[in-house]
Amino acid sequence: MSEKREMIKTEMLNKSFGDLHVLKDIDMKVLENDVVVLIGASGSGKSTLLRCLNFLEIKSSGKVILEDEEIDPKKEDLNKVRQRVGMVFQHFNLFPHKTVLGNVVEAPMMVKGVKKAQAIKEGKELLAKVGLADKANVYPSKLSGGQKQRVAIARALAMKPDIMLFDEPTSALDPELVGEVLSTMKELAKEGMTMVVVTHEMGFAREVADWVVYMHDGRIVERGHPQDLFDNPQEKRTQDFLGSIL
Amino acid sequence: MPGFSHVINKFIQYFDVFIEAMFLTLKLTAASLLIAIVIGLFFALLKISRSKPLSLIADAYIGIVRGTPLIVQIFIFYFGLTEIVNISGFWAATWGLAFHNGAYIAEIFRGSIQSVDKGQSEAGRSLGMTRTLTMRRIILPQAFRRALPPLGNQFIIGLKDSSLAAFIGMPELFNIATTLGSANFDIMTYLLIVGVYYLVLVLLLTVLVNMIEKRMSVSD
Ligand SMILES: Nc1ncnc2c1ncn2[C@@H]1O[C@H](COP(=O)(O)OP(=O)(O)OP(=O)(O)O)[C@@H](O)[C@H]1O
Ligand SMILES: [Mg+2]
């Protein structure tokens, strides 16, 4: 069997906002088809790390390597890079002035120049996949939070990314709506999508994650398979954190 | 004060004259506001651009417009422009009004663009859209919608301010009123009449803006 490709790799990644040193010497690796769950307290730098991976934030130093290619923000066309890395946000960020289908076809048509008929066909397939085929022509304001987030997932998938990043995709949802979003994500994982997920849903992490990474104060403190990390954490800080949330 | 029936009589007698002047007022207003929208959008984008010099240019323009009386601006456009280029009084007035309203509209657009949630542009950028494309397809459509109420307000101000074109000889509503008034030694009558014209125009404009607002808000 051939070895799995490294989809994401960071080396000594550091990020500061002014004097605030938010990411410290982050070395991480995400292999093809893997699901990595990032956990950690508020302010530990999880969102910043995700945002550095699709260059919504630009690293202060270190390397970000996507699919064996180091991305130099000064030389690379970051818009092209971002097409390969989909992102799902805590607050959905759907485009309110566009219909559900309009949200999904916007980037393929405007960025990749996909023909309208083709974009609509693929968009409808994606909406069917996330269980929202019947909502194609409604506006986002008419949807529940869970439906909005599933549209956001379909919208990101429409660009056919190689990697998907999720930043607390269920944190803004009412508890009864969390399940539908998680099952969409599980399905995606099953299909082999490479995913990095920031979440507090430990059940999801246990069931789906290949690796769990615990961050504290801008550093990766511990990583491991979910059973190992959850049931037998090695570091004191990991134990304290898990104790505080479980 | 003139009697009510006297005012009505003059209103009817000079109906054609006032209607003609009203059309000039409307032309001045429409032309200057259309240009002002373009100027306003341009300077709003300058103002929020990441380039310091560009945003300073926008600051300077807005500062100059705010810091000087409209009548001075109109006179400068009239005497200045007619001196260097062959331009009619109508276009001098139109450009003067556009220059003035453009600054206020720039501030309206700037505010409405900045009021769009940052998550919107992040979503656009995360899909691989360029800054420009995100602005054009995602931010501006939402910003225009939010700008409508204050824009409507500025349109009303622009309509009423077009009366200052009287001072460079444009035979628009206010000019006709004062001309007739002094010719007949009956200024009050004609001021009352012209007041009614403005009031009706403002009401119609308000209704129009409300209709557009309703139509644009179907999605939310
Ligand atoms: N654009 C920014 N400018 C300045 N400081 C920032 C910026 N973005 C994040 N920070 C700071 O960086 C630190 C890490 O923030 P980050 O959002 O990455 O944490 P997080 O782990 O995602 O937390 P949460 O669980 O609350 O989402 C925080 O102290 C935050 O205030
Ligand atoms: Mg966060």
Written description of the protein model:
The complex is a heterodimer of chains A (246) and B (220). Chain A contains nine helices and ten strands. With 246 residues, chain A is α/β, with parallel strands linked by helices. In chain A, the strands form two sheets. A six-stranded mixed beta sheet of chain A has the order 6-7-8-3-9-10, with helices on both faces. The model of chain A has no long low-confidence stretch (mean pLDDT 95). The mean pLDDT of chain B is 95. In chain B, helix 2 (15-48) crosses helix 5 (89-115) and helix 2 packs antiparallel against helix 8 (173-183). The relative contact order of chain B is 0.14. Chain B is mostly helical. Chain B has helices at residues 4-13, 15-48, 52-67, 70-84, 89-115, 118-126, 131-161, 173-183, 187-216. The site of magnesium ion (MG) has 3 residues of chain A, from helix 1.
pLDDT under 50 segments of chain B (min length 5)?
none
Question: What share of the residues of chain B does DSSP label as strand, in percent?
Answer: under 5%
The helix-and-strand class of chain B reads: mainly alpha
Structural class of chain A: alpha/beta
The CATH superfamily of chain B appears as MetI-like
Through-space gap between termini of chain B: 51 Å
Can you tell me the CATH topology of chain B?
MetI-like fold
Written as H for each helix and E for each strand, in order along the chain, the element string of chain B is: HHHHHHHHH
Output the helix-strand order of chain A: EEEHEEHEHHHEHEHEEHH
Biggest β-sheet description of chain A: 6 strands, mixed
Mean pLDDT of chain A: 95
Question: Can you tell me the residue ranges of chain A where pLDDT is under 50 for at least 5 consecutive residues?
Answer: none
Summarize the largest interface: chains and residue counts.
Answer: A-B, 28 and 20 residues
Helix content of chain B: over 70%
